[in-house]
Design a protein that fits this description.
There is one protein chain. With 119 residues, the chain is an alpha+beta fold. It has helices spanning 7-10, 72-77, 82-94, 103-106, 114-117; strands spanning 14-19, 23-27, 35-38, 53-54, 59-61, 70-71. A hairpin with an 8-residue loop joins strand 5 and strand 6 (70-71). The model has no long low-confidence stretch (mean pLDDT 77).
Length: 119
């Protein structure tokens, strides 16, 4: 898990958690707290990611790096049945890409800032 960090940091950090191709969490000995890295740019895990986000304004995002959103608010307000909502969510998940566009393409995409997506 330490392979993506510069070698001079290896001796200064204690590995707390390693989920290959997803998350590495570390502690700096002698200090409180921890630091974690999600390496989605170098280790694509999009194909196995099971996270969905519902924004404060009712949009479903299947990827933080993607700009596609589905308005569940509008679907629910239109009186959709539970089955129709499940179909819409399933279709959105089905369109999820195997990996995101890459750092340079993402920087050019129009997307909400994280502060507007919520968590």
């Amino acid at each position: 898990c330490l392979q993506f960090l510069p070698s001079f940091l290896h001796s200064k950090l204690t590995l707390l958690l390693c989920l290959p191709a997803f998350l590495q969490a570390y502690k700096v000995p002698g200090f409180r707290g921890q630091i974690g890295f999600i390496t989605s740019m170098s280790e694509h895990f999009c194909g196995s990611c099971n996270r969905l986000r519902l924004t404060a304004d009712g949009n479903l995002k299947v990827c933080l790096f993607g700009n596609a959103e589905v308005s569940l608010r509008d679907v629910l307000r239109s009186g959709a049945t539970e089955e129709e909502v499940l179909e819409i969510v399933g279709a959105a998940v089905g369109r999820k890409k195997k990996q995101h566009a890459g750092m340079f393409n993402i920087s050019q995409m129009k997307n909400r800032p994280m502060i507007l997506i919520g968590g």
